[in-house]
Amino acid sequence: MKKYKKIAFVGLDGVPCTMLRRLFELGAMPYLEKIARQGVLLGMETSLPPVSSVAWTSFMTASNPGDHGIFGFTDIERNKIALKLPSFDDVQCPTLWNRYPEKKALIVNLPFTYPARPLNGKLICGFVAPVFERAVYPESLIPWLKSQNYSIDTDNVRARQDRNILIRNLFDNLNCLQQVSLSLLKDTWDILVLVITGTDRLHHFLFEAFEDESHPHHSGFISYYQRIDSFLSAIDGLIDDQTLRVFLSDHGFTNLNTQIYLNNILKALGYLKFARADPKIIDDIHQDSKAFAMDPTRIYINSLERFGNLRMPSTRALETRARLKSDLEKLKLSDLGINFAKTPGQTDEKAFCEVKLREEVYSGRVSDFAPDLVVIPQKGFDVKATINVQGMSANDIFTGMHTHDNAFLLIGDPDMASRITKPHIEQVARLLPWASGSFMD
């Protein structure tokens, strides 16, 4: 097996493996296709729920959410039903660059690294990063980044109003990311982690444009991937042969037909009630509720052990969890008011592929704070925990949704693939050339 001194991880947020193969067939990504021919392209599973905060944290810590402690973009306080917004400061495990502090790291646009922490190298946070001055290390980079008009994310508010604005914004941000990244790559580094997140934004708003050649944004969609491939090729030109090249996505994507509102389902089933007639936020959940949901697919039992609910001691909490799992597994899509006449190709089937218990998903030191149940939706039916909505389902402006399967892992050296026993985002750090057995196990 070839020995490597450095490693370059490049992430394409939300790119499914099947889409990547199709882009190769279309000739849209010749550089990445060449790397795939020389190496190995694998389908990969990712975290549950399949959101960037959880998945990229699982990647950067090589650990399960039950160990690193990030279960979503939002979370619950440990002893009461109250909203918490976790950040990089809440990550309970060391990152792959922290485990090897002697290695110089360059981390660019990696989601959920805000606020930036000191490291041996440079870090520009990915989304969510509300204060730019806290999103960069060292701070001396900030004036230069501002002079480059560097932006961490697209303007998603304007994108909702005009897809042409979205396309222009995606190309502008990608051009700036390339300019900044190629400049930083000229410095010394041992570990590179660089993530392109515009792919996720494109898929949410315009996923249906990919295969539909008559779609007004089909050419823009393909052109964006061609531009990404050109960027990746430029990166390759600055990387030597002693660097292992690894490309990956944090989750898959599929077409979205209808959104499903999990809290309204829990209310209809008698597990959830609100303290006011027009609930808006989690604070409006009644203290006598048996269960409630958090975005996107997490369900918590309102137990004595977790939230101090005297009506729900541990034995009753387990009984409630089992009954709720059964109730959810029996639900049909028609039970949620979904009109199949407006959903071509769909038939009345179970609302959820699977409802998993906590212990089936999570393991580790903080798994007691994980959700009690995790719902896996049918493809095309995106589950949300939104409270201030009417009904159990509705259409949305988005046309694409995340999946926990069909992510991709592309390794530039096929011999290195033997280090991944079963492709999962928690295992990708096994590819580190200097990874010790204790780190990989």
Q: pLDDT under 50 segments (min length 5)?
A: none
CATH architecture of the largest domain: 3-Layer(aba) Sandwich
| Corresponding CATH superfamily of the largest domain | Alkaline Phosphatase, subunit A
User: How many β-strand stretches?
Assistant: 19
Strand count, sense and barrel status of the largest sheet are: 8 strands, mixed
Alpha carbon gyration radius: 22 Å
* Quaternary structure type: single chain
Strand fraction equals 15-25%
Shape: globular
In the CATH hierarchy, the third-tier topology of the largest domain is known as Alkaline Phosphatase, subunit A
Explain what the structure shows.
It is a single chain. It contains 14 helices and 19 strands. The chain has 441 residues and is an alpha/beta fold. It has 2 domains: 6-254 and 402-440, Alkaline Phosphatase, subunit A; 258-395, no CATH class. An 8-stranded mixed beta sheet has the order 2-19-9-1-8-5-6-7. A hairpin with a 6-residue loop joins strand 3 and strand 4 (83-84).
Quick rundown:
This protein has 14 helices and 19 strands. The protein has 441 residues and is α/β, with parallel strands linked by helices.
How do the strands and helices of this protein lay out in sequence?
Layout: E1 6-12, H1 17-25, H2 30-38, E2 40-44, H3 52-61, H4 65-68, E3 75-76, E4 83-84, E5 105-110, E6 121-125, E7 136-137, H5 142-147, H6 156-161, H7 163-185, E8 191-196, H8 198-206, H9 218-236, E9 243-248, E10 252-255, E11 258-261, H10 262-268, E12 291-294, E13 298-301, H11 304-307, H12 314-330, E14 352-357, H13 358-361, E15 373-377, E16 381-384, E17 393-394, E18 400-403, E19 407-411, H14 437-440
Parallel strand pairs: 1-8, 1-9, 5-6, 5-8, 11-16
Antiparallel strand pairs: 2-19, 3-4, 6-7, 9-19, 10-18, 11-17, 12-13, 13-15, 14-15
Helix pairs in contact: 7-8, 7-9
